[in-house]
Model the fold of this input.
Amino acid sequence: MDRIFDEETERLDEINEKLKLISRRSGLTFGTDAYILSAFAGGKKGGRAVDLGCGTGVISLLLASREKYDKIYSFEIQPEYAELTERNVRLNGLESKIEALRADVRDVTVNDTSGEADAVIMNPPYMKADSGRGNGTDDMNAARREVNGTIYDFCAAAGRLLKSGGAMYAVYRPERLVDLTDAMRRAGVEPKKLMFMYQTLSSEPSLVFVEGKKGASSSVIITRPLIVYKDGTREYTDDMNRIYEEFSTTHLTERGKK
Done:
């Protein structure tokens, strides 16, 4: 690579034994939500997936390195992050599996992905454009607020891109779950599984992970809650440790197991 990263404005971190990630010091960083969403997403051998609003590309990197899909199209509207995703893909030698593209989710069609997708994964902005205090930088504002598309725009894109029976995976805030499920149904994607995440057993849910299927009938499974830390500690629970060990959340729906 001609350029790996700029030490003054960027940082280089190891995600795991396989992956490294370049991120902007003033912008998006790798978080637990991205890792859990990547584990929550199902996979399909030989399948094609789309990562909407990919940011640094971390979700695409995780999915590709764990071989959940053979081809991933990673879309990002902010030019500096689209370029950053491309560098992260090259840094990790995943050019044959991930195609980084600069595009607005409101405009993306199957022409951009060489056909319909088996899965769409998204970690969209959680907050409405006019809610709360703005973040200090434009890129952080765009990552956290709906300035480049609402949840309805993201779900509409998923509806356009997915094949019949294809899966959508998203992480969102519980207080906006109604908006998410409404947007999914309007896009023809039926909510099928919900997993609420709690920082500790005594806290309120902080995130919800949702799986939907395009063209599916109406029924939904709510998994056991995912508790991240044991109360009063920064020690992971057994469920979180299994996610890191197995890169899957399926154990949360196994009957009679904890």
